[in-house]
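Quick one, tokens below. Sequence please?
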């Protein structure tokens, strides 16, 4: 069964850095685009960044530009979200999901699947 597992979240102070991991099992990420999403309490889930099978990056949220970056390591079957200059507003549950490569990162959020359980990131002083 195909699944994704997010990890790396935790409690951070403002200005800190954190790297989240998205590990795939049961399938190869090679033929998929990978997206990172987040959801804060009382708010809708929002897309952050997406990377396609050719490593082209699409930004969904301008609030993280210059602070977050997405990457992939197909040999390790893992994608990453590198987070820097963390702010209180970054507090959320962070999810990863995939879409088949032909749909690319321009697809609708409903096209993504194999959602993981999420990992909690809390930014507090």
């Amino acid at each position: 069964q195909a699944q994704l597992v997010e990890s790396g979240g935790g409690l951070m102070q403002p200005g800190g850095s954190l790297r989240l991991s998205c590990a795939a099992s049961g399938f190869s990420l090679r033929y998929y685009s990978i997206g990172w999403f987040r959801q804060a309490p009382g708010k809708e889930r929002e897309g952050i960044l997406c990377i396609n099978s050719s490593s082209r990056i699409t930004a969904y949220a301008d609030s993280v530009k210059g602070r977050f970056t997405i990457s992939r390591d197909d040999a390790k079957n893992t994608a990453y979200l590198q987070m820097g200059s963390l702010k209180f507003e970054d507090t959320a549950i962070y999810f990863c999901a995939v879409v088949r490569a032909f749909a690319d990162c321009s697809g609708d959020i409903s096209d993504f699947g194999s959602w993981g359980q999420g990992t909690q990131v809390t930014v507090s002083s």
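The chain has no helices and ten strands. The first strand starts at residue 3 and ends at 7.
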